[in-house]
Amino acid sequence: MDLSSLEILCAVAAERSITRAAKALGRAPSNVTIRVQQLERDLGVELFSRDGRRMTLTREGETFLSYAKRLLGLARQAREAVRPLVPAGNLRLGSMESTAASRLPGALERFHARWPSVTVKLAMGATRELIRDVLDDRLDCALIARPTDEMPGFDDVDIERVFTEELLIVLPSDHPDINDAADLRVDTLVALEPGCTYRRIAEGWGSRSPGLHTAEVTSYHAILASVAAREAVGVIPRSVLDLMPGSSPLKAHSLGDVDTLFIRRRDSRPPAFDAFRDALTAGA
Which residues form the HTH lysR-type domain (predicted)? Predict the structure, then answer.
């Protein structure tokens, strides 16, 4: 049993596929297969059940995975304890689309000016997916919206509040002013994917409007286009709305403030983490 084998185990468990795990690790699929089989022989148990190409953890595999993650975490802490905490290498950063548009450009400029040797690898996603990717070690850290209800894994990450966003319901320019969802005169709410905290907040608010249903779109530009066409209302942070050309004729109703959190695994603090957090908060 070695750290490399444990990393392979975690990758296969996360991807549920030898092929996808090999691609993520930069290894040949045959090498990943051999290492998993060797680990199973060493332990004397099957860690995965095989259904064609799908790899699913057995009960023993689930138990061992938790120890593997803890061992890898201890190894990272040991390395970080003895090496200078100078930002270097890559920083795998996840972000919501809204934060990437309104908050990251200035932060990335400040960070690269101070630490030009660090490469930031940016991935977009919704809050639910970003939490999962941090816990599965596909990301070093991520910017998420504070969940309004239970999300798997949220209690297992370290969090720091870095921004506060005012969340808005955007209405067509000719829609009467509203006090709450019961005043809506359209029956469609346009929002991003289900894992988006902003969508969940808007859907909770909209429960007072009988018949209101959600239409999923892929971007904030699509949200504004739907609203401008007088087909729907949409949910969007004010910081993003202020960046959008042509948004001034639309009306907006505030849903209040939502915290943006900077999260990381509790057992990992990459050398570039503190430096990037400082670049983020310098512009807050």
Answer: 1-58
* pTM, rounded to two decimals: 0.74
Six token digits for residue 255:
């849903």
Sole residue written with tokens 């983490």: 273
Per-residue pLDDT of 9-25, as tens digits, reads 999 998 899 999 998 88
How would DSSP label each residue in 233-254? EEEEEHHHHTTSTT-TTSEEEE
**pLDDT tens for residues 25-49?**
888 999 999 999 999 999 999 999 9
Tell me if 117 sits within 8 A of 88, measured CB to CB.
yes
C-alpha to C-alpha distance for 93 and 185, rounded to whole angstroms: 40
Contacts (Cβ under 8 Å, ≥6 apart) of 31: 22
Distance separating alpha carbons of residues 201 and 167, to the nearest angstrom: 9
